[in-house]
Each structure stands twice: as structure tokens, then as C-alpha cells.
Amino acid sequence: MSVNKETIEEYMNAFKVSDHDRVLACLTDDVVWEMPGIYQHVGKEAFDKEIENENFIGSPTIQIIKLIEENNIVIAEGAVQGMIKNGNILDAVFCDVFEMEKGKIKKLTSYLMSKNASLKFE
């Protein structure tokens, strides 16, 4: 397995248990995390606030279905589940595009689609 894929595996495993230090160790200092149309976070401090999003309870369950790499881009396709504070359950699929720099995540673009189209986060 390549260094970049190992970083993504570590990132996902750390995210599953909300281990902030392990997640942040996978990132460049100027990391950008974007979910188009929803948010864009720049830097580790902003990224850190999303590791345990205030709308959710506990850590998410994450399954990686595909992990594909070309050059310094790693694409992870998978599924995520989590408990929302309002009592709803997040049951979604995702496609994360990671732009890597020297074995660390420089930019993450997350595409997330709920399996329940009427799901509300508030």
C-alpha cells in the first residue's frame, strides 16, 4: 500500500474514534476541507472543529468501499452512519477526494448524499 493510501486509512480509522490528534497528524498545516455548497474550512483549527460536529452524538461509523489513487490524488468511496442530536440517524454514502502533499492531506473535497432525502440536521 502506498504512503498516501496509508495516510487515508489512518485518517479514516482516527475519525471513526474521534481521535483529534491522530486525524490532525494526517493533515498539512494549511489543509482545506470543502463540502461544496455547505462549507469550506481552512487550516487545522477549523478542520478540528468538524471532527466532532456539534450536530452529532458520538463518533460515526465509516466503511470504505473503494480506495483509488493516481499521482497525488486519493479517492475514497464509502458509507457513513451517525446519530444526530435531533434524534434522526445519518445514513449516507460519500466520495472523498484527497489531494496529497508529501504523504499528508492538503485538500479534502467531500461529496455526501443521504440515503434518506428528507433528513434534517437541525
Notes on the protein architecture:
With 122 residues, the chain is of the alpha+beta class. The mean pLDDT is 92. The chain is 23% helix and 52% strand. It is globular. The protein has a six-stranded mixed sheet with strand order 2-1-6-5-4-3.
What does the secondary structure layout of this molecule look like, with pairings?
Blueprint: H1 3-16, H2 20-25, E1 27-35, E2 39-42, H3 44-51, E3 56-70, E4 73-84, E5 89-101, E6 104-114
Parallel strand pairs: 1-6
Antiparallel strand pairs: 1-2, 3-4, 4-5, 5-6
Keywords:
single chain; 122 residues; alpha+beta; six-stranded mixed beta sheet; 3 helices; globular
Q: Would you identify the regions where 5 or more consecutive residues have pLDDT less than 50?
A: none
Report strand order across the widest sheet: 2-1-6-5-4-3
Strand content: over 45%
Structural class: alpha+beta
Mean pLDDT: 92
Number of helices: 3
Short description:
It is built from three helices and six strands. By secondary structure, it is α+β, with helices and mostly antiparallel strands.
